[in-house]
């Protein structure tokens, strides 16, 4: 019983990770929780500094999950 519950929760984690990945082509390569110009360019080769700063609404120099989601919804990237 315990083993099957463990296996089931593992499947859920994998499914959640897969669907999160499907939403965005960007990967947080250095794992700092935000997307840098380099990470955005890796996913979107057409990325420019002007587009990056347009997506970076708060001007922090990094794209966070909310900013990326907004950019996807606004069709800035995708
Ligand atoms: Ca990063
Ligand atoms: Ca930002």
Automatic annotation (TrEMBL):
It holds the Pfam family EF-hand_5. The keyword Nucleus does not apply. Residues 43-78 form the EF-hand domain. Residues 1-22 form the signal peptide. Keywords: Signal. It comes from the Bacteria. It comes from Albidovulum marisflavi. This is EF-hand domain-containing protein. InterPro entries: EF-hand-dom_pair, EF_Hand_1_Ca_BS, EF_hand_dom.
